[in-house]
Amino acid sequence: MAVQVHGCNHIVIEVTDAKKAVKFYSDVFGLTMLRGGEGAAWCKLGEHQFMAIFEVDTLQPDRVKHFGLMVRDEAQIEEVRRKLTKKYKLKLHPDFRCDFRDPWGNRIQVGDLHDESLVWLLPYREVQQAGVTFTTAKKSRSLT
Predict the structure, then answer these.
(1) Cα-atom radius of gyration of the chain, to the nearest Å?
(2) Separation of alpha carbons 39 and 87, rounded Å
(3) What gap in Å lies between CA 7 and CA 74, rounded to an integer?
(4) CA 56, 61, 66, 72 torsion: positive or negative?
(5) Fewer beta carbons below 10 Å: N end or C end of the chain?
(6) What does the CA dihedral 88, 92, 98, 100 come to, rounded to 10 degrees?
(7) How far apart are CA 12 and CA 52, in angstroms?
(8) DSSP assignment of 1-52, as one string?
(9) Cα(134)–Cα(132) distance, rounded to whole angstroms?
(10) ∠ at Cα 12 (119, 61), nearest 5°?
(11) Do 51 and 12 meet the contact criterion of CB atoms below 8 Å apart?
């Protein structure tokens, strides 16, 4: 029997201050904190995934390892960009719409549901509930 992957269950990041990391991710992305599990904190990501925040004494930032988060639309990407640059004084990677390193060096890329190339990553039911519609110059099509 062939193995079939149905998605990613969780990601883990390392920080030196879990309480500050929880405040940062709650503020920038509106993430809901969960209880229990391994690590200092858990944040709900979407319907079925989570991010575990581990507190460590010494950070070992990676060069290219990263993960991507998806938000609703361009307006939400702009809100994330505004908070990152204005409130947290973080720099955005110039070659991406919203690619940054958090205060602990974890690299994150932010995309939105209107990037048609990314929609296949989401469960169809969630795309339907989000009401995302794509319009192209040739014809209009909808996922709903």
Answers:
(1) 17
(2) 27
(3) 24
(4) positive
(5) N
(6) -70
(7) 5
(8) ---------EEEEEES-HHHHHHHHHHHH-PPEE--SSSSEEEEETTTEEEE
(9) 7
(10) 105
(11) yes
Using alpha carbons, list the distances in angstroms from residue 101 to 24, 43, 66, 122, 138: 12, 18, 9, 24, 38
What the block records as the tokens of 81 is: 């960009």
Tokens, residue 5: 């992957």
Buried b / exposed e over 53-69, threshold 16 CB at 10 Å, is bebeeeeeeeeeeeeeb
| Nearest in space to 24 (alpha carbons), one of 112, 90, 77, 74 | 90
Looking up tokens 């319009």 gives 135
pLDDT tens, per residue, the chain with 144 residues: 886 666 778 889 999 999 999 999 999 999 988 876 666 889 998 878 889 999 999 998 777 788 888 888 889 999 999 999 999 999 999 888 899 999 999 999 998 877 655 555 556 566 667 776 655 544 433 443
List, in sequence order, every residue forming a beta bridge with 124; answer none if it has no partner.
none
- Token couple for 48: 């079925």
